[in-house]
Amino acid sequence: MDDNTKQQLIAQSWQIHSEVEQAYRAHPASDHDPLWLEKQRLLLADMAMHLLQTALGTQALNQDALRNNLHAILTVSDAFLPHAKLKQATAHLYQDSLDN
User: Fold this and answer.
1) Kindly report the CA angle at 72 between 98 and 17, in degrees rounded to 5?
2) CB atoms within 10 A of CB 4
């Protein structure tokens, strides 16, 4: 994929991100609300756009940004797949940077 195509996709992702973020902020659910998981789905979509932007960047892959994107996605996804212990897996994302 050439850099121009990457830039076009990133620009489109910012538009999607903006719409999803507005919907998330407007969603009335709060913690322990029956609609909380619906709101979390919007947050997951928001985080997915950030991951797309990190992955398609035209520079070298920013490992800190990648770690942060994955941390957010795993943390939010934990509510949907609690048996997978995704939140616990996030500790390993930063282990590499702590060892150096």
Assistant:
1) 135
2) 9
